[in-house]
């Protein structure tokens, strides 16, 4: 059950992270947001990223093997990176219609799946 909680928390964390890092690129379409100075945009993004930590830190604490969780540190990092890329691709395809998913992206995802396989192989 700790593995499920860990992965769900990492998904939530990555949703906030993706919006904090890349969401502001889409917000420029809103008239009020386009006029904000860069420092304000950074602070808004930082505020969103704060919520990332509310999910990321518990995920790592719950999931880490030395805290009674099911994952090693390397496994946690690989789960986080794969989750980040999946969330990022979904975000990109949903919110940035000018981006396309090409064959080289698909091939890259196959290699990521292989990486996960080899990282978790005992």
TrEMBL record:
Source organism superkingdom: Bacteria
UniProt KW Amino-acid biosynthesis keyword: no
Transmembrane segments: 6-25, 32-55, 78-96, 103-120
Keyword Membrane: yes
One Pfam family named in its UniProt record: DMT_6
Listed InterPro entries: DUF486
Signal peptide as annotated in the record: none
Record key words, sorted: Membrane, Transmembrane, Transmembrane helix
Record's protein name: DMT family protein
């Amino acid at each position: 059950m700790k593995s499920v909680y860990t992965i769900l928390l990492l998904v939530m964390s990555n949703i906030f992270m993706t919006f904090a890092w890349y969401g502001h690129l889409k917000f420029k379409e809103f008239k009020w947001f386009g006029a904000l100075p860069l420092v304000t945009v950074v602070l808004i993004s930082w505020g969103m990223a704060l919520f990332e930590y509310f999910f990321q830190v518990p995920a790592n604490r719950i999931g880490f093997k030395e805290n009674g969780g099911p994952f090693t540190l390397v496994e946690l990092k690989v789960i986080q990176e794969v989750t980040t890329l999946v969330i990022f691709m979904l975000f990109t395809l949903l919110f940035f219609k000018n981006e396309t998913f090409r064959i080289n992206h698909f091939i890259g995802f196959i290699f990521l799946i292989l990486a996960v396989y080899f990282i978790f192989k005992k």
